[in-house]
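Researcher: For the record, we're logging two predictions in this thread. I'll number them. Prediction 1 follows.
Model: Prediction 1, sequence and structure:
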Amino acid sequence: MMAGEERRPLLFDDNSAEDDAYSNSRKVVNQLYRNQGGYSNEYISGINVSASSSVADFVESDNIIAIFVVCFDTKAGNIVEWSAPADMKLEGIEFKAMPSGAHTLVKDFVYFKFNAYYGLACYETMAVDNVEERGARMKSVGILAASYTLLYRHMHFLEKQVKMQLNNPGNYEQLQLFWEDKKLTLESTDSVTNLKQLMRNSSPLVRPARELLSEFRITHPAGCFSQFLQFFGERIFTLWKFMLLRKRLLFFSPPPIGVVCYRVYCCCCLGSHRLPQFLGTEPKPHFFVNINDIDTLEAEACYIACTTEKIFETKPQLYDVYVDNQNLKTDVPVLKDLLKINSADRDKFVKMTDLRTSQLYAHSNDALSEEQLFVTYFTELNNRLFQTLFDISFTQDKQLSNEHMKSMGLDPQGDRTFLMELVEMHGIDVVLMVDNPCCPK
């Protein structure tokens, strides 16, 4: 189980407190930038950031759409043995709640998308002296909800219930009581409809600072963002570029899959900003996917997902970027150039590492958690990038120079392809200047 400190939300539940928290986080990050010789005071103070208020003012409920128990049957394979409501069609969810390779683990958890809903399931196996079950009992208890941001609230309950189902198979009384308490009512159904409407009308890259980051819970012992940074290192800025370009990203890893679901979430956060001028299609987090999702993924223009099934690697038409543990690869010619780490990427990673170190040893009330630091860092980085492009597009000559690129934290040569793709995708009217490297000014 997580300690009390680990159970706190990424930011805050209260909207006004969250605004104050973001403002404070932004001040701390910017001050650290200045102390390290980063962006200038004039540039930082000139950025106009504003939050989207529609989603900000919405308070999401933690009601659920369904609850279910999946087991492994030695004759039939994965099956749904019980669910509520009884008339809800859950065909296929048995392979989401008990992913391929789960039998190799004692326990795990998984986030996933099922039709229009998001799910969380906790899996566990127990050795039994039973010939019919071939020495092992495998169960998974899960729920479905309209959004994934509050699923974490029910993880402890699911962990307890899967143990109960292993020790007392067929006893669904507590699950039924939980369903009666948390099922959607007419009021909550209206709330879900309102939320989905707000999400459709809101900027996807504005939302992460509030909707994406609102309460998705970290349960990895090392901390989600810390583990993400350590795992990918400088490559995190390659992922950052793919996120801003809204590419289809697929993470592969053998089980356990729970921690990889958190990599999907962290990747979503890389695109966060608070500038409403740039609207577009959201990179949808699908979390865990399997071969049954192939048709769904083929229809997506952009998404982020993870899988334990190696067969996806042989289907490049389903993704733009394939991430096999720490190795990133793409068959899209224009994206291959983006796989190279350049000097600006290294510099940003060093600065971010220094920021983390500064906060690690900070003993003030302004010290940020790793979650806040990570999100605020990328929110501010993206704010500066988009605000600079937006400002230049309103100048008379619309010329984007090498100095502009450096001010945005980009490499004038190494990031040229990335920037050309970005401005074309958003329809930003700027002209990239070509400086002759043989005749420097």
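Researcher: Logged. Prediction 2.
Model: Prediction 2, sequence and structure:
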Amino acid sequence: MATLLDPRFKNCYFRSPDAQKKAEKKLLQLLKTEVATGPVSRQNSMELVEVAAHSEGLEAAFEAVKQNARRNEEGPVRETEEDVLKNFLNSKLESTGCLAWWQKFEASSSNCKVKLALCKLAKQYLTPPPTSTNCERLFSVAGQIMDEKRANLLPDNLEKILFLRENILVTNYSLDW
């Protein structure tokens, strides 16, 4: 998922077109879920705060809210999740820093709930974990696998064993032993 959300790589490093389509489908599903459960866009909530701060009495506040509602009705048509994701994936590859690009993207799309949800997913998948616990756990398991009985195990095979061990749980594969 992180490769797909990185504007420097997007669709470059997939083993097959099927794997890419599967990742895009999963990202679209995550985006739809995020939009459905996400909060109202920042722009709308900030406008309501500004209305309350600058209004001179209750009547002026109601007038400002009505004008804001009219502006929203006349505004651009809501972009769908499919359109936003398609535009992102079809845009050119970037050479700038990944998180800096997403920061600019978020600033330019403050009124679009779908784009803000995509930014949130990017932050979630592109930010490294704050601790090294997972790495330490992986090294510990590698030490347990690479014992005296398996001293002749090739590094590639050790890497494959570790990869399968870590990712088998992600795929919801159940071992019926």
